[in-house]
Amino acid sequence: MPLLVAGLWGTLPAHAQTPVEISFYYPVAVGGPIAKTMDGFAEGFMKENPGIKVSPIYAGTYQETIVKALTAHKSGTPPVTSVLLSTDMFTLIDEDAVVPFDDFAKTPEDKAWLNSFYPAFMQNSRTGGKTWGIPFQRSTVVMYWNKDAFKEAGLDPDKAPANWAELKTAATKLTKKDADGKVTQWGVQIPSSGFPYWLFQTLTTPNGAILANETGTAVKFDDPKVIEALQYWVDLGKAGIHPPGVVEWGTTPKDFFEKKAAIIYTTTGNLTNIRKNAGFPFGVGMIPGNARKGSPTGGGNFYIFKKATPEQQQAAFKFAKWITQPERAAQWSMDTGYVAVSPAAYETPTLKKYGAEFPPALVARDQLPVSVAEFSTHDNQRVTKALNDGLQAALTGTKTPEQAMKDAQREADRILRSYK
């Protein structure tokens, strides 16, 4: 959903009447009252910065927004700033569409702010010694489980499966069938549409595999550990304890509310949504481990576009800095379920109180020390498509996990050849 920040009187002489307009694309890919919260922030920013007008406009998903932003950039009228996926960093650099935040961080206070975010989030925000993105709407994948379903299946409702073996055992006990043998409740559900590569990282990371190198120029889809992780996912379906084929990202929380799935994997950004709509006690846990623990980080960063005027860029820097201050990051986390982006946010009285009253809100933060960067490379959309196509081929049974990953590797190598 794009957001429009218009007008910056502060950089103009007192008699000037023409505001500096700042177009701000703002996407939301999960449900919840996020737009309302953003409206509140916009009003707060305008109060503190007279002459700057912030008016939200809504326009679609992350995928739609990056396409619109790059199309506008090529036609010479790009947004001034935008919240886009952290994984879009290499693409935006390749298109020469953005400028690093380091260019605007002149004071010691600015520089301290640039270094105030969780290191796990900066893995997808920095490259080549420069900061290209500022973490804002960030997440990790977490596991949600229905405590009543656990009780009914004779499982401890307060203890989440800690590893792959425990997950398979629990999911087997949690799967329910009707008299005709039709499944009415799946033991576990991991979505494979929307962001298949991201959910796949909840299996490759615990299996000790990293899908791409730090410079975004090479991938390891055919690593035996990657193939083994995909085989585990496929085998959950073959065992009849996970839905067959491709599972929808968007309807997975609803399947949880409707008790069609007892355990689901989804973003911590769905926490507020699930808290409001689950009519039963639920748990939130870290992703089960195998060789290790771990989840990918995810979500959106602020970027500043290159073709904007210096005044517009400066204003965008000011807005990004304002909205990520600890107290506002804390508020954003409570209102949405996203992870507050800095340790300082968790030290605010607001978030301390919230965390004490609702401990599930801290699970994603506590998973950060073992979290890895969300999969990202140069020519990211094409390389990601190669991986997603391979995953879906394996999950639908048209290819074996090994064949699917070898084919995806071949395609990715071809796309990335020119970046080596």
From TrEMBL:
Family: Belongs to the bacterial solute-binding protein 1 family.
CDD domains linked to this entry: PBP2_UgpB
Lineage: superkingdom: Bacteria
Subcellular location: Periplasm
Protein name listed in UniProt: ABC transporter substrate-binding protein
Subcellular location, principal: periplasm
Organism: Variovorax dokdonensis
Pfam families found in the cross-reference section: SBP_bac_8
InterPro entries, per database record: Bact_solute-bd_prot1, SBP
